[in-house]
Amino acid sequence: MSRNRTLRAATVVAAACLLAVTAAPAASATAPRPGGGTLILVGGGLKDVRIYREIVAKAGGHGRARIGVLTAASVPPSQDPDAADPATCSNSACNGAYYADLFKQYGAADAQWVPIDIEHVAAADSDAVVAQVDAMTGFFFGGGDQYRYVTSLLHGAAHTDSKVLAAIRAKLAAGAVVAGSSAGAQIAAGRDMVTGGDSYQALRDGSAPGWFDDASRLGHLPEGGFGFFGAGLIDTHTGTEGREGRALRLAADTGHDRVFALDEDTAVEVEHVGTRQETLRVLGTHGVAVLDLRRARTRTGTTGWSVDHVRYSYLTDGDRYDPRTWQARPADGKSPLRPAGTAPVPANTDVFSSVDNPDAVPYSFSGTARALVATTAQRSATATTYESAPGFRVTLTRTGDTRAWTTDGRTAVSLTQLDTAVAPLAP
Hints:
This protein is α+β, with helices and mostly antiparallel strands. The protein has a domain at 39-297: Class I glutamine amidotransferase (GATase) domain (Rossmann fold, 3-Layer(aba) Sandwich). It has helices spanning 49-58, 92-105, 127-134, 146-153, 163-173, 183-186, 199-205, 238-241, 244-254, 364-373, and strands at residues 38-42, 66-70, 110-113, 138-141, 154-155, 160-161, 177-181, 193-196, 208-209, 219-221, 233-235, 258-262, 266-271, 279-284, 287-292, 297-301, 304-316, 320-322, 327-329, 335-336, 380-384, 392-397, 403-406, 414-424. The strands form four sheets. Strands 11, 12, 15, 16, 17, 20, 21, 22, 23 and 24 form a ten-stranded mixed beta sheet that branches. The chain has a nine-stranded mixed beta sheet with strand order 3-2-4-7-1-13-14-18-19. Strand 5 and strand 6 (160-161) form a beta hairpin. The longest helix is centred in the first third of the chain and has 14 residues, at 92-105.
């Protein structure tokens, strides 16, 4: 869920067909791949053509893939004042048509909107819609508010699968691809799925179960999302909205020892989901932060909350990660970076790119980390929050395990195992 929501131009206005989508023709889906399917989870702002094409490829390939598009995280057409205008509409129906058209452009034999939203929850238990899902070889969940997926595809307090979600879960286990962007990635999480929050408020106030009208308050759903992804917590829009702090605080508060914090236009691709062969690969224009809290220690004192001994890694296009061994492997073409710069790490007084700072710079946290591993001038670097009273200081420190990789011999592209601590500033 992004605080910077943008309208998507739809090529077709599909509101009139909200419940008129019939089951797809009985074209047989491509043979499932053994050993579980594939997740492709994007941190929002999806533009990279390679990611779209990878979804099509994992769904059976050019001319064979059949993609079901789910957009229940969007508002229904009745709540969209621009529903009649294909140039500005942003609702479940027109967003579904938009993505379906894109997947056809990128080689899918067919792509169809799956007609479920918060005003048509009954469709999630429709046998006709289940038949539509069963004819698909892949699925894409669009962005918006992940809690709308909970209320439209899961059964209330019982948190049990609707018929449509059960069918998608079975297809994933049998080898299909399930992809999602922003809220569509968040909903893949298991227990303690994040529902909102900003980093500074999270560090200051901690987390609480629930969904809150105050978008700055760190909330989570203890029952979780759909539970497709089990290797750790998920967060999205990380670099652009400075969410490293909220991801760290939520993990610490809820007892998780790992977070995958995805940047925009960047995916983590999980192959062989749920099996011993499960592996992760990064694909896209920015990166994925991996926060390792196995050795983390938290304290709450008179000045506020603190944590130390978190390990921070930042993986970029082509890098792989083994969730069982906690080890990263750089992509081909990246070589070890030997720190050679002598300039100090630039000062950073807005480490979490505060929404309140009109001059906030995106990718602030990862920028400081990259600068540190590329210089010989210092072993540690500090950065502070834009907010004060109390402010927080982030300290990044190179360790004997820290590694960095480059493509030009000078600039850090990827890095692993920076020791990270967060502490309140003295008043």
